[in-house]
Design brief:
Number of strands: 6
Structural class: alpha+beta
Oligomer: single chain
């Protein structure tokens, strides 16, 4: 059997190709899941593996229907997976008490994981393997680059707590004196502050790019600042 015959055999629906596709889905899904698990994300090793295997099984079932019954759209069930995976992705997105959105990358990763499973299920092995490699690259390597870029921008979103309202006024005056600007400010709630305390969400604009850790350290020393955290 030459390479072309082997590839055609694996593209057909049989016991060997079915096993290979589901096994490949477990491996590829598991690789992505391990990477997310290391970062302690809501969806980890087993979740990614199940999503990929499930999507693969859907495409295998769709191919089986078309082959055995000679009718149906081979992409119909796959389309339902692409739209239906949204409910699982939405469940990983949360908004914390400080109005910070978390889980977007995990949700996007689950969607891409399902798409990878569909590619495996229909026998598009090369696309699935290349896709798995690129998705892993985005999640791991490019994640570090994204963190470095976002940590040195001119715009800084902060959650801050002050002992009293007058301290907020002192802080805003200090910001203006040092060439910074506050573009947005919103009063927030904090369960662990005293009644006289004030919690705010604000956006600070800098004159030039500076490491956010340096700015946060500087702002934490302003009189009246009880707590500060970058968002």
């Amino acid at each position: 059997m030459n390479w072309k015959e082997f590839y055609a055999y694996m593209g057909d629906l049989n016991m060997v190709s079915t096993f290979v596709r589901l096994a490949l889905a477990m491996v590829c899904g598991g690789i992505l899941g391990i990477e997310r698990g290391k970062k302690n994300r809501p969806a980890g090793f087993r979740t990614y593996m199940l999503v990929c295997v499930g999507a693969t099984l859907v495409m295998l079932t769709n191919q089986y229907i078309c082959k055995v019954y000679g009718t149906g759209d081979p992409a119909r069930l796959g389309a339902q997976v692409i739209s239906g995976i949204g409910f699982l992705g939405a469940g990983t997105i949360i908004v914390t008490g400080k109005n910070r959105v978390k889980g977007l990358t995990t949700a996007a990763g689950l969607w891409a994981d399902a798409c990878m499973g569909l590619a495996i299920g229909i026998g598009f092995y090369s696309g699935a393997v290349i896709g798995c490699t690129m998705i892993l690259l985005v999640m791991s390597v490019l994640h570090r680059i994204d963190d470095r870029v976002s940590a040195n921008t001119k715009v800084l979103d902060l959650y801050m707590e002050f002992h009293k309202m007058s301290d907020l006024g002192v802080f805003m005056s200090w910001i203006k004196e040092h060439g910074m600007k506050i573009s947005e400010i919103e009063m927030s709630k904090s369960n662990h502050m005293e009644e006289s305390g004030v919690a705010v969400l604000l956006t600070v604009k800098l004159e030039k790019r500076r490491p956010h850790t340096e700015i946060i350290e500087l702002l934490s020393q302003v009189e009246g600042v009880q707590y500060i955290e970058g968002l």
